[in-house]
Specification:
This protein is about 55% helix and about 10% strand. It starts with a strand and ends in an 8-residue tail after the last helix. The protein contains 4 helices and 3 strands. The longest helix is centred in the middle third of the chain and has 24 residues, at about 55-75. With about 110 residues, it is mostly helical. The chain has 2 domains: about 1-75, no CATH class; about 80-110, no CATH class. The chain has a 3-stranded antiparallel sheet.
Length: about 110
Amino acid sequence: MSSINFNTSNQTFRQLVGNGLTYHVPRSYDLRRLRLKGLIQRIPDTHTYQLTTWGCRVAIFFTKLYERLFHPGIVATLPDPPFPSDLAHALASVATVLDRWAKNALGEALPALD
């Protein structure tokens, strides 16, 4: 398996982690956490880190999880899903039942969420 190397002062690191970070935590903190979890390892005598085999597996797992579960699930929650799906229909049914229960419990004081 080929490895991914990146330097902490390199643009590659910013592309991997993201350049729109809104918090001001030093990169060393994030790198330390990734290293302690075994996702990356430091190449001796450099400021370069390498993705471990475990780190690559974790990255692939979460990419597949997003592509196969979260993305279709999020699309199914849209008001007008671009394609019909069992999940979209089930979520609409659940929303209808929850609205009915809330109206029974709270009366007509419940505002519409549309």
